[in-house]
Every structure is written in C-alpha cells, then in structure tokens.
Amino acid sequence: MAQKQLGAKKNREPIYFVIYCIIAALGWIVPAPEPMASSGIKIVFLFIASAFGWAFTRQAWPSLMTLLLLPFTGATTFSGLISGTFGNENFVFMILIFAFIAFLTESGTDTFIAAWILNLKIIKGHPWRFLFAFLLVCFILSAFVNFIAMCFFMWSLVYRLADVAKLERGGKTSALLVFCVVASGLLGSSAVPWSPPTLVVLGNFTEVLGGNISAAKYLLFSFPYSILCIFCLLLLCRYVFKLNLGFIKDDSIVLLESAKRTKRTTIGLVSTLAFAVIMILPSLVPAASTVGTFLSTIGTAGKLMLIILVLCFIRDNGEPVFDLVKLATKGVGWGMLIMVAAIFGLSNAIFNADTGISTYLQTALAPILGTLPKSTFIIVMIFLSIGITQFLTNATTAIILLIPTVTLAGSFGIDQEILIVATIITSGMALLFAPGGATSQILHGNRDWISFRQIWTYGVPTLIVYGILIMLYSLLWMML
Amino acid sequence: METKRNHEIRTFVIFLAIAALGWLIPPFGDLTPVGMKVLSVFLASLFGWSFSQRTWVSLTIVALLPMTGVMNMTSLLAASFGNSSWVSIIVAYAFVGLMMETGVGDYFVSLIFRPRFVREHPWITISAMFILTWLLSCMTSIFTGTILVWGLVYKLCDSIGCKPGDRLATTLVFGVLISGMLSTTATPWLPNVLVITGAFTSMTGLSINYINYMLFTIPFSVVSMLAFTLMARFLFRPDVTPIRNADFELLSAGAKKAPQKVRIALAGFGVFLLLLLVPNVLPAGNPVKSFLNNLGLVGAGFLVLSVLSLIRTEDGPLLSLHALFTKHLPWKMLIMTAGIQALCGALFADNTGLSEFLSAAVVPVFSSLPKVLFLLTIVLLGVVLTNFMINAIVAIALLAPALAACTALGITEYQVLYVIIISTSVALLTPPSGASAMLLHSNTEWITPKEIWLYSIPTLILLSVILVCLSSILI
After folding, report:
1. DSSP H or E stretch at residue B35
2. B334: closest chain A residue by CA
3. Pairing with B433, which of A47, A350, B100, B311 sits 20 to 30 Å away (CA)?
C-alpha cells in the first residue's frame, strides 16, 4: 500500500500534461499582436508549451501532442505536417545515420580507433600527450560514432586507470578525468553536420533558408575550433585545475590491447571515410558537373543510402555486415526522432510567412538588439545559447535562438551561416544542470565518480573558455 | 553461404538491368520518357521484392527514382516516408505493442472456455477458438493471435491424448491459422491494409471510409470462418468427440478479473476505435465530425497514446512510447512501405503519362467483360500470385490496371480495392508469400507440407468463391 502511495505521489506526468494544455490553450485566448496572424499566436504558445513539456518530462507525449495540435492552429494541414516532418529529408537521414552508427559500434570500429590512438608510441611515457590523445579519442568517437556510447566506453577506461593507479573514486583526479571525457565529447557531438543532434537544427535552418550549409564549411569551422578547445581544456587541467598526471608515467599501464584490425573494422573505417568524402564532395566539385548534378539529385539522404546499399552486399562469415532491419531496431532513438518531427513541424510553422511570427519578431527585436554593435550582438547570442542550454534541451535552445539569428543577422551584415554553426555548437554545451541535454544528463547521472560541486567547479571555467574561444573564432571567420 | 551472397548480387544485377531498360527502350503509347524509366524501375522492384527478402530493394528504388526525373529526392521522401500511411503503420504497431505488453492476449485466452455452452459442444469449442484467434489477431497481430491460440490447441490436444498428425490436431492448427489470416484484412487500421490503402490513396487521391470498409471485410471474415468450420466438419471430418473429455478447468487457469493494465489498454484501444469510427456516422458539417476527420488515424493514435503514457498502474508506468516503438516497430515493413509509396507517388505523377497509357491499354480488354468475370479474374490473379509472391507487391501490381478499368465497367474504385486487399492476403502454399504462410510452414511439428497443400487448396477455392459472391452481391 505504502509503495502504491509512493508510486502515485511520484507521477507528475498528468500535472505536466495539464500545464502543457493550459499554455497551449492560451494561444486560442490571447489576441495576436500586430502584425502576427491568429495562427501565429497559437504557434507561439504551442512552442512555449512544447519547450515546457520537453524540459519537464522525458516521455514522448509533448512531441506527440505538438504534432497533434499543429494542424489546429491553421498554419498547416495534417497531411502537410506529416510530409514536412516524417517526410523531411533530414528525418529520413537521421533514421539511416542511427543505423549507420549502430553498425560502427557493432563492428568494433570505435574500439579499434581508441586502441590505435592510445597505443601510439609517441604518447608512451608522456602523460600530457597521453591525455591529449585520450581527449582526442573522446572527440572523434563522439563525432563519428555516438556521444553516449563514447562516454560509457571511455569512462570504463578511466575506471580501469583509476583502479590500476589506485585513484580515489570521486577524488579530484578521477572526477576531472570523468569530466574531461564529457567536455571533449560534447564538442564532438556537434562537430560533424550529419550527427543527429546537429541535424535537428541544421534541418530547420535548411527549411528556413531553403538552402544548405555546406558540409565542408561546417567542418572547416567546427574541427579546428574543437581541437583548439581540447587544447585549452588541457591547459585548464594543467594550470587551473592543477591535475597531477604523474601516475601515467608508468609505461606498464596499457588501457587497451593493441588494435586488431578485422574485416568488419576495416569495412567500418572505409565506409566512414567514404561517407565523409561523399558528404564533402559537393563542396569540392562544380555544381554543373556530372558528379555535382548526381550528388545534388540524390540529396543528403541519398548519399548515405548509397553507402548503406554497398554495405548491404558485403558479407563476413556468411552474414551480411549491414543488416538494416536489425541495426535500425537497435540503433534508432525514437525519443529523439519523435521530438525532431515535432521540432520540424514547429519550425516550419514559425517561419511560415502567413503566421507573421518572423515579421513580428523583426519589429519587436530590432529596437532591442538592433542598436547593439555587431560584436556585442554575437557575444549576446553565444552567451545566451550557452546559458539557456544549461536549462533547456539543446535542440530547444538552438531553435529558440534560430529565430533572432535568422531574422536579425542579415541586418547586422553578419554571416548568418557562421552564427548558426556557432549557435549549434554552443547549444550542445550543457553541463551545469541535468535537464540541459544528453551531455549534462549523463554527467550528472555519474554521481559515484563526480559530485555536483565538482561539475560546477570544472564546468564554469570550461564553459567560459569555450564561449570566449567561439566568440573570437566566429569574429575571425567573419573578418576573413 | 556463398550461394546466398551470389543470389543477392545476381538479383541486384538483374534488378539494375531491368531498371536500365527504361533508359534504353524508347517510350511507347502515351508513356513519356520519364514514365518509361519509372515503369522500368517499377518492374525491377516487382522482380527484386519477389526474389529478395532484404531491404536493399526498397532503398535502391528510393535512390533510383529521383534519377528518372519524375521528382527530386525531397519530394520523393515527402511522398514516401512523409505519407500518412507510413506514420499510420507506426501508430498501428504502437497499439499492437501496447496490447502485447499489457497481456491482453493472455487474458482473452484464459476467458475462452469459461461459458458452459462452449465446453459442452465440440464444434462450438472449435468455433470459439477460431473466433478468439480472429479477435486477438485483429487487436494485436496474426503472430500473437495465432501463436497464443496454437498454445491453447496444444494444451487441449495434450489433455485429450491427441497427437501431432492426428486429423483433429491438423484441422485445429490449420483452422486457427486461417482465422488469423482472415483477421489481417478485417479492419482498415491493420498494418497490412494500411500499406495497400496508402498506395490506393496515392494513386487515386481517394480516402478510405472505415465503416464501409468493415461492412465488406467483417461479413467476409464471418462467412469465411463459418464456411471453413462447415468444410472442416464435412470434408476434413476430424473426430471431435474427445474434446468433450478435455480438462477445461486446466485450460481456463488464471481466468479472473482483468488486470488493471489490461482494462486500461482495452479502454484506450476502445477510445481509439471510437475516434476513428464516429466521424463516419456523423452528418456532414457537424463540428465533431470535422474535428475527428482532421485528427485522422495518426492524430487519434497520438492523442490516445499521449494520454495512456501519463497513466501509472500499480506495476509502474503503463507504457513507455520509446520502448514500445523500439521493440515493436517492424523496420522491414516500414522500409518496404516507403519504397511502395515512393513508387506509387512516382507512377501516377503527371509527367509519366502512365494513367493515360493504362486507360488506353487495359480498358478495352476489360470493358467487354461482364462485371462478375472481371471480379473473378482479379480474385484468381490475386489468390494465385499471392501464394508465390509477397502480398503487398501483388496488390500494388494489380491495383493500377484494375483501377484503370473501374470507370468503364461501372464499378467503384473501393470495391476493386477491397477485393484486391482480401484476395492478396490469402497466402498459404509457399513460405515466403506472406505472414500466414510463414507461420504455417514454420510449424513443422504439427502440420506437414503435404497436409498444408491438402487443406489449403480446398480452402483457397472456398475463400475465392465467397469473395466473388460477396463482392458481386455488394456491387
């Protein structure tokens, strides 16, 4: 009985649901301010209700309810909504990339990459080189495989290291290493334009502008920035957090057996490389050439389809190496996928000219932000992004900031694309509060190894450094 | 192993060769160059789906179609993954998962032998098991319904000393499967039906009236189950008297009050059905009707699933949608549906000329036939082909020419659709032809391939006759 009462007490979902409905209903009650249409105000409140729902529950109902209510705002029809969300090219691409990521994990490609880097001769006996290589592995695995899988894998190496070196669980060194895995991994999760979290925002941006940020441009921005951040994190560890790595000098510490290449890991590596090349290729070949036309015809999803098609015919020990059905069942993250559909639906509606939201925001925000100098505007946007993402999910943060970025960046003469990329990267920097996103959820969930206080002690300086770096880096890009 | 790989690669090469014909052969009739390419991709896909069970066929179709020039990738994906029927299948399977996770099937199985009249008359006992299979399969899936009741059949056989191979055991195992098979087309929100109705909507722009659909399919199921029971009694002639001695108490074990989870799941499913069916009986212009029509199957599903996910039972949360989707969504079917929708969207696009071509080529052949003969042709083609090819593929292949002949013959598109859906669902003879055949052929312990053919041929004839008669009467 007592257990039943406890269970009943804990169920706050109906309360959240009622609050969600009340917020959404306000859109039907509150009159729309000029020049917003009545459908616009309904969408605004639906957006606020969704942000509330996503912040307070991990269940899928806020996304489903948002999809359900959108056609009733008058901004779209149900069939239009379905084709603009589930039929969105980025949505299909996400399904395929989830399966591809599951393939990389299943084939042992991630372990191979980690083992190869951590066993390089150049880092043996050099603790700080070792730490740099370790953080680089976190970044690469997060970028090309999956952030959560990377965390568990790399943390297991930290635990083994702590065990061998007899480090105290939750002590400064072990906590800092646990933190560094997340701090470098979060850079990876937004470093490639085809990673699922990035696609959510990038997909919306594509909808808004009707174009694409080229993969090459994105990577040219994100990779050097991320490497710079990892280097600065290393400096922070050495000179600010005073990390002592003396115990790593012992050459006998071997975290992973030397990398053994199997047929599957080779296929995993080659397919990842082929995928990266085919994604970057459109930026390198003339659009009118045969290759350019072909790649543009098949689109982003088609490129990954081609890689998967080839993989479908390769066998190892009589079994196909890529079983799409099995990998999709194992790899597709439905929580994220449904949320993405709802976000696509919302952003399509928000930027639909008929709703008048963009026009309203332009007239409302211009007097506030429009008087700021260009550099101050960039600083405000970046720190707003880092600040908001500590409380709201990454995608929600990025979508909120996408609105002023798209509506105002042009009037400042700012390179809109660079600011969008910077927003995507910073909106992934959730560390301080658990609800902020996958990065903070996973970090705060590891209370055995790192305390709330330690997260803040290491997190705040790291975020400030990351923020200053991206601000300077963005300004530099815009000047070039 | 090597042979398997060679088979897939050989199939892929032939697939590409057939598709390439569209680029080589000049268009004929009213077909445009784009239409010729799309038609060749369509023929290649029929070949691919028939000879490979892998997902590469559907992926290649989606990758190839933009190259025909019929539409770009963005529009194609919107027409395939962004088709309502694709999302409807996700919703339908979420409900299937809900029923399975909450144990609705087990509860119904435990209820079946409670009424005394069911225990006293062997043929009523048998009929009750068939009805139970049909009902459970309608609510969950043919796999769940059939396997659960087969379990009951095994227990029953065990308690009366009936062995595999005995005529009674074979009749029961086969009859349960037939009931499950009939359920796969009984309601319009079942995944198999959604694939074909989605293609139908893409081709014609017409939507499905759920009540009209069920007014055709449910009587067909009821008449067929009744006719099968009669055929079993007078043609297969199993000795049913031992059933009187069965230990029904043991078989009804656990039949108590429905658990809380079962009650909530059934209530949720009931509300879902109401939301689907009510708009079909309300007068035009009624605001509730327009609201529910706006919701549709997907919206109604989202609403009910959202509310159900708020509920916590004594065992914890009633459902986790993420877990439900991850565990129960059939990716093979979803990917194939996307391929089918992409094809249908492309085939009947304005720039292919295929509609005009079919009207000119097919209508003169069929328009001279009496309606009944036309229906018989469709039914025979459907039943024969579906026993050797995948159901949905046969249905799509038949839909296009049959729909083209409808107007000339004075038959509604819906009647042709219903006949095709049912006739292409009766797969029994070869394992790869469909879910029912796969289940039947995999149960080697209780039924042999020879028995399958012996029981299937008269059953297929019976079902075809019932289908032609019923559709002729309704038309």
Report:
1. helix B33-51
2. A325
3. B100
